[in-house]
Design a protein that fits this description.
The complex is a heterodimer of chains A (about 350) and B (about 350). With about 350 residues, chain A is mostly helical. Chain A has helices at about 1-30, 35-40, 45-55, 65-75, 90-125, 130-145, 150-160, 185-195, 195-235, 235-245, 250-260, 265-285, 290-300, 305-335, 335-340, and strands at about 80, 90. The termini of chain B are far apart. Classes of the chains: A mainly alpha (about 350), B mainly alpha (about 350). Chains A and B meet through helix 1, helix 7, helix 9, helix 12 and helix 13 of A and helix 3, helix 7, helix 8, helix 12 and helix 14 of B.
Amino acid sequence: MSLIRFILRRLLTIIPTLFVILVITFIMTRMLPGDPAMLRMAPRATYEDYLREVARLGLDQPIYVQFLVFLGDIFSGNWGNSYIVGRDYPIWLLINKKLSMSLEIMVISMVIAIILGFKLGKVSAANQNTKRDNLAKIFTYIFVSIPAFVIITYFMQLYVATPLRILPIFGYKTAGYPEPPQITFSHIINCILSGNIYLLFDYLWHLIIPVSALTIVQLVRISRQMRASMISTLEEDYIRTAYAKGVKRRYVIKKHALKNSVAPVIVVSGMGFSAVLGGMIAVEVVYQLPGMGKFFYDAILGSDYNVIIASVWTFSIIVIIFNFFSDVIIAALDPRIKLK
Amino acid sequence: MSNTKIQEKEQEFNNIEENLEGNFNSKLISKITNGFKFLFIPKPRIERFQASGMQYQDRKKKNKIKGWLKSTFTFIGVLLILIIISIALFGPWIAPYSYEEAMGSSLNFWNPPSLENPLGTGFAGRDVLSRIIYGTRTALVTALLSVSISLIFGIILGMLAGYYGKWVDSIIMRVMDIILAFPGLIFALAFLAILGAKFSYIVWILGVIGIPYYSRLIRSSVFKEKELDYIAAAKVSGANNWRIMFKHILPNSIQPVIISMSFDIGRAMINLTILGFLGFNDPEFIDWGRDIFSGRRQIWRAPWAVFWPGVMILISAIGFMIVGDGLRDALDPRFHLVTR
């Protein structure tokens, strides 16, 4: 019961946040240098054409009317048109495929990072000062501060300098392979449903490097957090009581220590998701994957402001949704937060 | 007792033994039964104490090695930071080429490492070694400035939120949530695309992105400190609010902030590199990420142009992270929330 109340309270706090993000995005649209009507003028346009364009774009109305129109556009799916992909192609149709590809890669990397990070942190904390722990510590120290694209760049160097040419260095499918039919939102499920196993393996083979680059960065953070919080949990009194009662060590760790040390790790995973979004852009640019990150980056380079604003809005919604989910999970696991 | 009485008791004792020796059977039986008795009594405690004593000494030795290792790690981290700071300070005297030559162009581009260019040349014949030396200055100054912005505003806002509570707290926390809702780098990229990539904008944006973290840390510390007695004593003595906040509460809650400051400098350098890699750095300054960006296409011909800036970002970030870890272990070994 209190969980539902917590969820409702959280939703109520999200709505003003969303509103403020909308306002900021709107201010960004109006802060852009250049006149959108002037940019759309043909070389020999007249002043009447300019005025007509201004009226068409709705730029001569007062600012609050423009804001209401903006809100209406955002919520009805009319996110403007994009210059860089053909002339005036509606963004809403483009974002669908790109967002699904980006989200797929991000979700796969985060899931792998969370699972492996949990295991690594748990092993490291449960066997302190043994060989396993020391190996894990060395691993985390080396990889704790590598940005994802540096991993990819070094891997590309490895590809270049040695005859070790196993994994592909760009793209998401080999040239000449067909696209699977767009039944669902996920490329992997599309490949499975279309029955073409070679496409699926090809896609997975291409994805190994970007996913592992993003995963390593998050894995290290999550395992460090898990190790620290488990060490502080294992020093509590109830763990000592459990040992004194004769409970076996593995059972104590699994039942008592793990659940109580999970909360800060979920916080770090939520923050890690935002970090993955940032790293995703660089990874997509290096690896030439047609996802949201590369879309956003090309728009920045090509001054396509509609795409910039639509991408910022999309990314913000994704981050808000994932933060909301991580808060709900923490509240579900820890009754003290529910009742606060 | 007198001497004679002791001698009497001795004789009695010896007599008992002589009595037993006379009766062979009963002595043998008593010996066997005594032996059986000792079979069922558990081993004497002294051996177990000796064993655990040896284990304790082994553990002490391991702890010594672990402590030495930890302190060596921290020593390496401090050494790395000192190297980076000295490279930044003494840059113009160390670098083989001057600043203008490192920003200029010449004809021998993408050369392999040779006698004139110890690490090879890069984009327009620019010496890689000088570029990484000058890049250290940019990275360090940007990171320090943006972390100080985050610190100052984060501490002030966190203290206000924690001390005054109620609606001030909710407003400030809402603003922090909004800042957190934007994935950091995407916010930075959008603003830099709109406003242009100048040094001051980069520093301010990287600073603003880091504010919510510090304000949350300080706010939770202030909540705990507010209840303590010395604050009540200060209030009763007539201290006004600002004095209490900055003379009493701040020094006691600064410890996690110092630890995360060290991690944050490393994170700011990584963020700066990612921004540079995507092309958004101030064109007047030399940046490691920008070098990786320029050299990306030529990775087949000139891997050294991309390798060395990556190594520099790695060692500087790793140095700050190791020192942050060492600080955390030194100041509070039970610190719960790992910062990055």
